[in-house]
């Protein structure tokens, strides 16, 4: 009896297994055609359809990056019959030797290649394509494929836009959804928005006969897939302002960044020397020369270079002092060509100006001595038990301004810069063996602190907004493209907004209080109420770097700018006029007659060779 039960269970189990197998077989063979499609791959050929890449516009709808048609010549080696090599070479505007070399390669690797189609020639001209189309029937196995190629109708933003290039074997290892011969955004916006711009490939499936020759569409095209064009991108960039900024920066090494303070939208991002858009469409041909250029035009200094901020950083130290209660706007400190910070007489120098000064005038005149006193009071604040504790608090305040960390921009390759930590000094000097005098250079934005030009421009936007910023970004929400909600959220510093007006007034006086010793009078434009702060950052590799930040107008600001020019001397020498000309151009549309000579001098002067 027990044996009969065991037999019955085995029969039931076998029946269940058979039912599952027959059900699966019915689904695969009858219901699901995709399995049949895969099984028939050896008797079919798939012809790829490349989608047009999404185009890129500026904030006003001006086309920055478009597409034009190009043609590739393809070959399926196993379909090739005997042909006249010299004749084909003439049709394709190439050499007979090239054709022989390629065909020899295909023959050598014929087993590996199989029935796969290969790219024979890339980006042939329209004339070559037309000649080939007329005589294609003479060359079985050869065919043309239409693709789109990037074109740049407006010369603005080469480094910003970036370039596309053919995928490499290394890239394919990490991106299995691409295949050899595909192109992808490698730098700039092309890389940052690759997912949107790329689109989706489609294909036509054709049957092959017993000899492997292509015949009719498979299943009347039911399994063909249409290509989906890439999404268009609208940037925050003002194309005309970008172009003007490039003219101002020609022959200089550095960056020029402009932000709309009320939105965080980047109006201009110039890295100089940079890439001219004329080379982007055929970048591979120019890459070697550009990569070997000693001035590194491929390097986007605006987001990927770290510099000491110099005297523009005095604004931050002044605000931290106000927030901590160790500084009052009316407090005056003396300065006799600098600040003596050791008993042996070591001195941090300063230019000659009247003394003593209050906060407004210290900002106006960019007094080094004044801000040494301020920083000393911050680090020796009796509310903290040690210099290390006070320094850690100071660092936290500074980082709330966006320094020492990535801002979170949507632009690739952004660096974080550096705000040194107490742990760093503990390692370098030993715990308890360093104090204000050890780090005095941080008073004026020197020493171990490093910032990017984008972060400095963001400081200008913070001053314009009196205490907050929107994360700088270069893409606007438009059409099917949405940006992260974080770009519309206010980012407040740890300094109360009530402390900003007095410092802003000092920035206004630096530009507009003519004859009172302001360091930025060259930026003065009647009626614009530009507020600015000069900086001169020491540079161990040559002349000092010239730095200037500004915003305008003083109330309801429309633009905030940072100019950082390497090896250019005082902030007032080059960064200040460059930034102020950009502001005037944006707000007025033209440069006033009284500043035309300044504009000509800036545009014509080359600081690098």
Counting structural domains, the number is 2
Please state roughly what percent of the residues sit in beta strands, choosing from under 5%, 5-15%, 15-25%, 25-35%, 35-45% or over 45%.
15-25%
Helix- and strand-based class? alpha+beta
CATH class category name of the largest domain? Alpha Beta
How many E strands? 20
CATH architectural designation of the largest domain: 3-Layer(aba) Sandwich
The name CATH uses for the topology of the largest domain is Beta-lactamase
Tally of helical segments:
22
Shape: elongated
> What's the Cα radius of gyration?
33 Å
Q: Summarize the amount of helix as a percent range.
A: 25-40%
The fourth-level CATH homologous superfamily of the largest domain is DD-peptidase/beta-lactamase superfamily
Query: How widely separated are the two ends?
Result: 102 Å
| Low-confidence sequence ranges | 33-41
Mean pLDDT: 88
The main pleated sheet reads as: 6 strands, mixed
Note down, in words, how this protein is organized.
This protein is α+β, with helices and mostly antiparallel strands and 609 residues long. The protein has two domains: 44-235, Penicillin-binding protein 2a (Domain 2); 239-274 and 300-604, DD-peptidase/beta-lactamase superfamily (Beta-lactamase, 3-Layer(aba) Sandwich), CATH 3.40.710. It is built from 22 helices and 20 strands. Strands 2, 3, 4, 5, 10 and 16 form a six-stranded mixed sheet that branches. It has a five-stranded antiparallel sheet with strand order 12-11-20-19-18, sandwiched between helices. Strand 11 and strand 12 form a beta hairpin. Helix 3 (85-91) packs across helix 4 (96-108), helix 11 runs antiparallel to helix 21 (575-588) and helix 15 (359-365) crosses helix 20. The protein is elongated. Residues 33-41 have low confidence and may be disordered.
